[in-house]
Amino acid sequence: MSKGNLTNESLTLYVILDSIGIGLCAIAICKTFIFILFILIRRHVIQSKEKIVFLLSLNMYTSIFVFALFILDMFISMMKGHINPDVSEMDQDTQWCRIKVYLSTIALISSLYSNTFQALYRFFRIIYYTRPSFYQNIYFYSLGILILVCLSALQPLPILLIGEYQYEDYHCQISLISWRGMTMATFLIWLLPVSLTIVIYVCTVHYIRHNSLTFTVQQQKRIKRDMTVIRRILWLVIFIVLFGMPAVCTTIVYYLFGYVGWWANHLTWSTFILSFTGMSVVQTCYSPHLRVLWSKRRQQIVPTTAITLRTLN
């Protein structure tokens, strides 16, 4: 997509879309950074039984934060190119440009897997209720996060190695008109984590339906709460997939009609960052354990009572 002959009108439109993208990235970065700081600074008020859910939330916020940083850099590069279209692109079309989009893809996949891992945690709490080592071992989940990061780095590696990351519109990405690249991205980036999340949800529902009569009242309350969380995670993942549809639709439209809108790149990346910002907002609103971060520390009633009784005696 050549930008060497931009008119003043088209330049204004490009800069407006660049500014919107930068604004969305700034919102995502500020929002996630604030919650990362809250979790780290207020970690002393976190109960030991809630440390794992906070670890999983921290993993999600960090992944979105890193992804938003890379997309912010991409939109800034696009704005610079649109404002100065006569500047040589040779200095930008480098291997580092491709490495950056590869790293941003790792962060994107890690964000998707963060939802999968939260669903897996709830799955263990329901299925292995009598074996706390499955859902109370923080080292197990720390190791799991490292494994998922490595998996997130391996999945898009074939895309990088076969050269599907191309320089386009002053940044690097998988070309929206590359059928091979978009097909690989769909399966390697989106479908794997989304499919795992759906499988976890189906297995959990299947287990509950076949064992509901054996649950105690306490188990039923706990399962109801966990299933609500898993259901929200599933809908959240579906929401993210729907926001990824513009990229796929652009490829399909190109092969059917030979047309790609000049706004396609902006629409694709803006919807990506918007969906992950929405994911962090939903996580914040529907996660009761996060409320302790901005609430006052609860008073230690039991020790005070004990001291009073000793005084009276």
UniProtKB/TrEMBL annotation:
Protein name as it appears in the record: G-protein coupled receptors family 1 profile domain-containing protein
All copies of domain G-protein coupled receptors family 1 profile, residue ranges: 32-291
UniProt keyword terms in alphabetical order: Membrane, Transmembrane, Transmembrane helix
Transmembrane spans: 20-41, 53-79, 99-117, 138-162, 182-208, 229-257, 269-288
Pfam family, one: 7tm_1
SUPFAM superfamilies the record matches: Family A G protein-coupled receptor-like
Compartments, record wording: Membrane
Gene Ontology CC terms, in alphabetical order: membrane
GO molecular function terms listed in the Swiss-Prot or TrEMBL record: G protein-coupled receptor activity
Keyword field contains RNA-binding: no
